[in-house]
Amino acid sequence: MQVIISHVNLDFDGLASMVAAKKLYPQAKLILPSKQGKTVERFLAIYRDSLNLYHPNEINWQEVRTVIMVDIASLQRTGDVAKYINDEEVEFIVYDHHEESDHNVQAKLAKIEKVGATVTLILEKIKMKNISITSFEATIFALGLYTDTGSFTYLSTTSRDLKMASYLIENGANLQVITKFSESPLQEEEQQLLQCLIQQSEEHYIDGIDILIASHQQNEYIGGLAFLSRKALEMTGTDALIFVVEMGKRIFIVGRSTSERIDILPLVKKLGGGGHKKAASAMVKDGNFHEVLTTVRDDIYQVVKPAITAKDIMTSPVKVVSTKTSIEDAGKMMLRYGHTGFPVLENEKLVGVISRRDVDKAKHHGLGHAPVKGYMSTNPITIDAAMSLEEVQHLMIDENVGRLPVKDNEEIIGIISRTNVIEALHGEQLNTAGKVHLDRPLEITLIDRMKNFLSIENLQLLKQIGKLADQINYSAYIIGGIVRDLIIGRTNEDIDIVVEGNGIDFANLLAENLGGTVRCHEKFATATWKHPSRLKIDITSARTEYYDYPAALPNVEMSSLKEDLFRRDFTINAMAIQINEDHFGKLIDYFHGFNDIKQNKIKVLYNLSFVEDPTRILRAVRFEQRFNFKMDQQTFDLAMISADKIASTSKPRIAHELSILLKEKHPVESLVRLGEIGIIRYLIGTHSFNVQKLKTFKSLVDEIVPLQQNQNSETWVCYLVILFSETENEIELVKDYCLNNESLKVTDQIVELLDDNQNFLKEDTLGAIHHSLKNYQTESIICYIALMQLQECFANKLKKYLQNRTQIPKLIDGNDLLNLNIEKGPLFAKILLEIECAYLNQEIHSKEDAISKVKREYL
């Protein structure tokens, strides 16, 4: 076992270096020291669930063989961790930027260099190895870098630190989070000024927002008020502050905010200043200090926007467990619904909260059978639905609690987790009023697009279906790809309908009233209705899916439209259009798919999406190439993190998605993209694949195979043959992905061609080549050309043959031979082949020529 440790009173450089080291040593476990610095402690109060941290007593230290030490080289500074480590039994790896000392461990590998922050040393290695990092990881690394270099002002800062900062910004480091949690020391005169300001401050509490107004007058000028304002924000924990400081004959006004709800700029502009909504300043020369201070006090209420409340960001309806629910069942429910914890009820009253960490700890000790009552957190803190986001955030930090049940008149109506808070603070779900779109979908009408891109017959049919739904009080919607394509502006007549009700009953009602037949699928609560016009429509009940384990097939239960859409793969596919008469054409978009389409963005709906179904990664790439879209950074990061899950997915499921992907217009680009994500590595191992051969094959297919024939051919499996061509037993590996006998036939033919002595290449005539290759599929021969990278003369000869053989007319058939009194048998096939060869050699041109040739040679 490998572990990663750092020093006691952990600072951000230590934390960042630990997380960075895990990128180099992915099997290692991160050990959290017994004490952390205050700012790190505050950071972990929000982000702890995003890091896989262990306490020392959770590790079997007898199994530890390697200890990776970061931002430290001596066990003396590890606190309680030191007592667990037998330095004679383990190997040490050290990354540190402090001066070497006699107390340093004897390390197998020690990288100790003078840079501003230890994380710089590890980041250089990560960048050199081309290891990808997420925007969240980049933010943590940047926190370590910024805080240990004083935002690059300390004399210990090197150019290497600055280069790594640029690298982190390029990879999405969030400067807002860095500013919120970083800290720097103050000079003595700065400390005195800051102390005066805080002592002479007044607190204003406005709709959940805490704003500090601090004022002071002195004769001498001290610079750096902006820096002091940032420091004061950290010290006071307020959401915003405004300094009004008179120094000499000038009055300085500096405003800083950490909340999206606060816009300081208008107030500062009124005083002749400028800046940004969260950071603005002004200077008034020869002004009246008390008048300026009064203006700030009077206008402070105008800088606050309406609050985002607990009700806006909570998850609802809330899933709960009883005190008698077993630990094992609670864990399955967490996986099923993607939650990190549940409220616990007893006699319909809230008595506790069980978290994923509680469940994992109990299961680690073999107590999966035990009821949650013994492991839940009791006396849970609850909040009112009207509590502001800022109050929720402060409560989580102050109480170090990760989930808060939301009550309304003593009834639990939802729950807020750290994830909900993080999404609200850092996500892109805010509208102009500052409210979060979670329970209220975007609603616009798409009637005009439906008229433009649906046939008149199908549009009228949808109206009829909507009216029948009204008769039984069902809400009915078209869903899926057709909605996406209507928004994009593409024709799509593949109609799927979901109803909030029993889908099978509704399908039978359609058949009774509009004709046609119904085929039911009871397990999935779906039915396929075949209309008399031969149009097939899938009718489903609104449902949710859950997975018993990663990469498993989903289980299904009835639910609402919102949860039905939430189980979809991407936001662009998670929209519906209502077809009930009074709301016909109304777009229902809970998850911002409409905006993502406008921004050409592929985005998953939740973080476990790729874990639950890794084949969604293949679909993401397919949609990228089909629509010229791109995965957003978080989705791409999640795809890379989940790439290894493809190894747990059945070959037929992977093959199904690959067959669709490789029949699209850009198969080579798709495979390259899968390589970037890391999927290809889990298909072909560490072997490389030849992109040029793939491009050669694609070019030949486009040149030789008609488009319509290409869509129905087995060309897709040839891409796999080329992809696997650098591996051992490549054909056998490809056969695992073959979906039918036609795919197997193509792969077998490629093997035969590769094993052939290539005599057909030495033939001078197309007829002679046809004699050898007549029974081979076109795609098999093209794949052979690409794999062998034939000389141009040979490649052109085979290309000419393939192009000409598609034009061979059927000059004579078996009946013609019977009329010539030739006995039916194997000779028939021989004669017909010779006729085809003669045509290719331009020896005959018509049926008369063919019959003459047969008479001449066989009669």
UniProtKB/TrEMBL annotation:
It comes from the Bacteria. SMART domains: CBS. The keyword Nucleotide-binding applies. GO terms for molecular function: metal ion binding; nucleotide binding; nucleotidyltransferase activity; tRNA binding. The keyword Ribosomal protein does not apply. This is CBS domain-containing protein. It holds the Pfam family DHH. CDD domains: CBS_pair_DHH_polyA_Pol_assoc, NT_ClassII-CCAase. Residues 314-372, 376-432 form the CBS domain. Belongs to the tRNA nucleotidyltransferase/poly(A) polymerase family. The lineage of its organism: Bacteria, Bacillati, Bacillota, Bacilli, Bacillales. Its cofactor is Mg(2+). InterPro entries: CBS_dom (IPR000644), CBS_dom_sf (IPR046342), DDH_dom (IPR001667), DHH_sf (IPR038763), DHHA1_dom (IPR003156), NT_sf (IPR043519), PolA_pol_head_dom (IPR002646), PolyA_RNA-bd (IPR032828). GO terms for biological process: tRNA processing. Keywords: CBS domain, Magnesium, Metal-binding, Nucleotide-binding, Nucleotidyltransferase, RNA-binding, Transferase, tRNA processing, tRNA-binding. PANTHER family: A-ADDING TRNA NUCLEOTIDYLTRANSFERASE (PTHR47788:SF1), POLYA POLYMERASE (PTHR47788).
